[in-house]
């Protein structure tokens, strides 16, 4: 049985809007989102399920990434991802069924950046760990292998194997 994988994605570059939840991706952000999908495909990281913040920029990020990667895979919009706290995002992730092997989560900082730090068991790829220490910029992707099911995910309970900001 293959390990469970968690792919944390910070939404691509966003513009402004009167209301935060309505902020759209910029032209650069649209290209970033497509690059995320291409990179995930080349890395063999095709998700079985996707949790996405209902914020416009996160939805657009997955729409662009997903169409390149897995056309037709419908994301689950989860307000807890937009709550943008480690606890809220972890609660959503822990509800992932066991039959899902690769879960992608498209969210926001500070939660995505904090999760990258909090989940890391210190045993991951040295380059990925070093790059992640600099923070998770817009369009950043962190990939974790989990020792057990998503339901058991806890701080220090995952191995950071990849960290990248796909080039546009």
From TrEMBL:
Alphabetized UniProt keyword annotations: Hydrolase
Transmembrane segment boundaries: none
Stored Pfam families: His_Phos_1
GO molecular function: hydrolase activity
Coiled-coil stretches: none
InterPro entries named among the record's database cross-references: His_Pase_superF_clade-1, His_PPase_superfam, Mito_Ser/Thr_phosphatase
Protein's name in the database: Phosphohistidine phosphatase
């Amino acid at each position: 049985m293959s390990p469970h994988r968690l792919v944390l994605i910070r939404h691509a570059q966003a513009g402004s809007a009167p209301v935060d939840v309505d902020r759209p991706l910029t032209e650069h952000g649209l290209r970033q989102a497509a690059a995320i999908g291409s990179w995930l495909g080349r890395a063999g990281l095709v998700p079985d399920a996707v949790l996405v913040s209902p914020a416009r920029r996160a939805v657009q990020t997955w729409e662009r990434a997903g169409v390149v990667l897995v056309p037709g895979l419908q994301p689950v919009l989860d307000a807890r991802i937009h709550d943008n706290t480690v606890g809220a995002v972890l609660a959503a992730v822990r509800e992932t069924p066991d039959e899902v092997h690769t879960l992608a989560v498209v969210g926001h900082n500070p939660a995505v950046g904090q999760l990258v730090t909090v989940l890391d068991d210190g045993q991951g790829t040295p380059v990925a760990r070093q790059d992640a220490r600099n923070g998770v910029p817009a369009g950043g992707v962190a990939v974790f292998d989990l020792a057990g099911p998503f339901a058991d995910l806890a701080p220090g309970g995952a191995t950071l194997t990849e960290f990248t900001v796909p080039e546009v």
